[in-house]
Amino acid sequence: MAKNLFQKVWNAHAVRVLANGQTQLLIGTHLIHEVTSPQAFGMLRDLGIKVKYPERTFATVDHIVPTDQREQPFSDPLADAMIKELAKNVEEFGITYFDLSTGKQGIVHVVGPEQGITQPGTTIACGDSHTSTHGAFGAIAFGIGTTQVRDVLATQTIALGKLRVRRINVEGSLRPGVYAKDVALHIIALLGAKGGIGYAYEYGGSLFESFSMEERMTVCNMAIEGGARCGYVNPDQKTFDYLKGRPYAPSDDEWSSAVDKWKSIASDPD
């Protein structure tokens, strides 16, 4: 029986079905930032729990970091305090941190792809609603709340209800002056701001195949604005070319087998 990418990735990461019908889902990659993580780390301390797999969590500052100031203390005392708290937490719990001094800091949903952390076939969680951006790479990526950030830190899993999948095909090409964001907004206009509730959106067709990775990221970023829990594009040669040689991408020795695996998780033909 043919399966789509969502079903393949979900089944590969499902730990068990809980009594309430939700699935305990393994999270392959966890991204954190300075706004939704402090309380989660505080709960870990209160419970005396360590981070289960610190090597699977990556941190950066991006929500309230100044754009015109790179050295602390920052003029905004709240921003300064939150960034210092993140630095303390990642050091205590042994988490990789892309801070302002590394040259790798940036918007969390851009850092993941740029570093090659975001890869096809994985599950990704982050305490930010637009985590669906990572679906451009054939990942299943969810935005989560602070208590779920705690759960992922403590167990590397979260409890979720399984989504239905809606395939959205767009064929053709765009006229000059029309961009990926316009496509995303048009889809929302057609299906409604609540049209995606309970769904994962699979974007397909010749238009999305022609899009750059950045354009695909733009569309997947907007899936949440249409009510969908996540959105994704099946991985293809553009995906592989983008990832090759990036710091956290598979090494040259592992590359061929990684690409074969990534190809296998793409949705089966109808």
Question: In words, what does this structure look like?
Answer:
With 270 residues, the protein is an alpha/beta fold. The protein folds into 2 domains: 5-160, Aconitase, domain 3 (2-Layer Sandwich); 164-253, Aconitase, Domain 2 (3-Layer(aba) Sandwich). The chain is built from 10 helices and 11 strands. The strands form 3 sheets. It has a 5-stranded parallel sheet, sandwiched between helices. The protein has a 3-stranded antiparallel sheet with strand order 1-2-8. Strand 9 (164-169), helix 6 and strand 10 form a beta-alpha-beta unit. Helix 2 (38-47) crosses helix 5 (146-155) and helix 6 runs parallel beside helix 8 (213-221). The longest helix has 17 residues, at 77-93.
Proportion of residues in helical segments: 25-40%
Structural class: alpha/beta
CATH-defined fold name of the largest domain:
Aconitase, domain 3
Strand tally is 11
CATH superfamily of the largest domain: Aconitase, domain 3
Mean pLDDT: 96
CATH architecture of the largest domain: 2-Layer Sandwich
